[in-house]
Design a protein that fits this description.
Layout (H helix, E strand, L loop, with lengths): L1 H22 L2 H16 L1 H8 L5 H12 L5 H12 L6 H16 L1 E8 L5 H15 L2 E8 L7 E5 L2 E4 L2 H12 L2
Helix pairs in contact: 1-2, 1-6, 2-6, 4-5
């Protein structure tokens, strides 16, 4: 279903991106989509949105109340459109696709690094400069600690994944040995 949601979300995200470029409101749309995305990820709200007893209009009204004064008129129209088409559940995928398109437009790459130990800011800068030289684009790094990696790191930049973790190397070795 996640693949289906991504496929369905892509045209919405592309249309929103085009509108954001036309109106020069890329960041406003990022903020609105981020708010809506966070809301639909909440387990209580996602349960309400999946409730067949609520009409689409009621679901739209609920989302508009959550958005409060943070949604522009176009943002409110998006919520109403998604509700009318039964697509409120894919807002997170729309937001992710929009952010990816925005990053491409701005010439940046979002990189997520998971390491066995917390990275220091100097290490993040070193990784960012090495990736900038390789990819020729500005790099935005986020990082997190995961001790299950044992040592090393796992890096994801768009479709590129670099697994330099000890656990990844052990898994690869086990696979090659047929264990």
């Amino acid at each position: 279903m996640a693949g289906d949601a991504t496929t369905i979300a892509r045209p919405y995200a592309e249309a929103l991106f085009q509108r954001a470029v036309e109106t020069e409101k890329l960041d406003l749309w990022s903020d609105m989509l981020g708010l809506l995305s966070a809301a639909v990820k909440d387990p209580a709200l996602s349960g309400l949105l999946a409730n067949p007893k609520l009409t689409m209009a009621q679901k739209a009204e609920l989302m508009l109340e959550i958005g409060g004064g943070h949604l522009s008129e176009e943002g409110q129209n998006l919520v109403k459109l998604l509700a009318a088409n039964g697509r409120l559940g894919i807002i997170a995928e729309i937001a992710a696709a929009y952010e990816q398109r925005k990053a491409e437009h701005q010439g940046t790459v979002d990189v997520h690094v998971v390491s066995a130990y917390a990275l220091r800011p100097a290490q993040e800068k070193q990784i960012a400069s090495a990736l900038k030289a390789k990819l020729g684009r500005e790099i935005r790094i986020t990082s997190e600690k995961d001790t299950s990696l044992i040592g090393g790191f796992r890096l994801r930049a768009g479709d590129m994944v670099i697994d330099g973790s000890v656990s990844g190397q052990l898994s690869q070795l086990a696979h090659e040995l047929g264990i």
